[in-house]
Amino acid sequence: MLLMILLFRSEPVSSPYTSRNKKPSATPCKPGMLGVYKSEILEDMSLRAVVTRVSSASVTIDGAVSGAIDNGFLILLGIKNGDTETEAKKLAAKICNLRVFSDNDGKMNLDLVASGGSILVISQFTLYADCKSRRPGFTEAARPDTAIPLYELFIRECKALGHTVETGEFGAMMDVASVNDGPVTILFDTETM
User: Fold this and answer.
1) Is 86 a catalytic residue?
2) Can you give the residue ranges of every domain in the chain?
3) Which of 45, 157, 165, 172 would disulfide-bridge 82, Cβ 3.0–4.6 Å?
4) Is residue 8 annotated as a catalytic residue, yes or no?
5) In this structure, are residues 122 and 167 in contact, taking their beta carbons and an 8 Å threshold?
6) In terms of pTM, does the model score above 0.85?
C-alpha cells in the first residue's frame, strides 16, 4: 500500500511506516498552510527472496523429484501479508536480470540467459519468521489464498522473461538439495529495492 502524508503543520511527523533510523526526506509547508510532505511515499509491503547461484539443485516431494536444474538460481520465495502483483513482477525482473555468473575473465558479469542457467523456485513462508521468542511465529507470512497466486505469478514472470523454471509444490513438505556455486547467495527484499 502506498501512503502519502498530508499535514496542517510544519514540523515532521513520526510514522509507523518510516524507518527508526531514517528521518523523512521531505519539504514541510509554511505554518498555518495545508502542506504535503513531498517524497514521503512509503511502502508497507515486501516480497523476500534468497537467491543462491548453484551448479545444481533439486526438490523432492514424497520421494519423487518434483523439479531439478543444473547451472542457475535456487530461489526461496517468501510472500508477506499485503503483497501485490506489482512486487512479484518487480522481484522477478530484478532476479532474472541479475549478473552474477562468471564471464571468460572470471568476473561476475553474466546473467541467466548468457550463462545458460535455469531457475528452481521454492515457496518459503519461513522467510517472514518472527524470532522474538524461541518458537518463531509466522503471522507476517501471507495466507495461501494470497500467497499462491503471487507465487504462481512470480513463476510466470520468470518464464515470460525467457527462463526455464522448475518448482516445488506450494505448502508441501519438501527436501531441497543444492550445490552452491561460489558460494554466491543474495537476499532480496522489495521493500528495499
Assistant:
1) no
2) 1-44, 48-192
3) 45
4) no
5) yes
6) no
